[in-house]
Amino acid sequence: MTLIVGLGNPGLKYKNNRHNVGFMVIDKLVDDHNSSDISKPLFKGELRKSKNILFLKPNTYMNLSGESVRAVCDYYKPERVIVVHDDLDLPFGTLRYKIGGGHGGHNGLRSIDSHIGKDYYRVRIGIGKPVKKQEVAAFVLSDFPKAQKDELEKIIDVSVQAIKELINEELSTITSKYTLKAQK
Description:
Blueprint: E1 2-6, H1 21-32, E2 36-37, E3 45-50, E4 53-58, H2 65-76, E5 80-87, E6 95-99, H3 107-116, E7 121-126, H4 136-140, H5 149-166, H6 171-178
Parallel strand pairs: 1-4, 1-5, 5-7
Antiparallel strand pairs: 2-3, 3-4, 6-7
């Protein structure tokens, strides 16, 4: 079984925020699969299942995402965990993949690391960063600008294709086929 986690914050207020790009990818994956809702209060999130794939959107807010991931992992014991998240250290338009590593200041990853360890696959979607470091919170909690909407849709589509293959393939195969570089 594979668990695919999209990171974000619950609620309409956050729906189109940069920090919610993980939720956007999960929504697209769920649309592409015939899945059923298997959410329970225990899971602290929206959990859907399609055959041997679980799709999770934690309802714990970003900083506590690990609580939801841990609850689902304890219950279903997936062989592979894939986490889709925004990445400030990558320019907008960049899409990269890796296993493990540091959290890079991302509180959602920090929470997951503390609950299940660092040995999980990461789909890193570049969102760029603000000019001033003190503006990071406002930046990640703001919506993608209209000028980025078309490219964002393409990035989400490529992410979805990569994740569908990552369920059964090695990371090196996905990296060579689906890595995106920011347009200049």
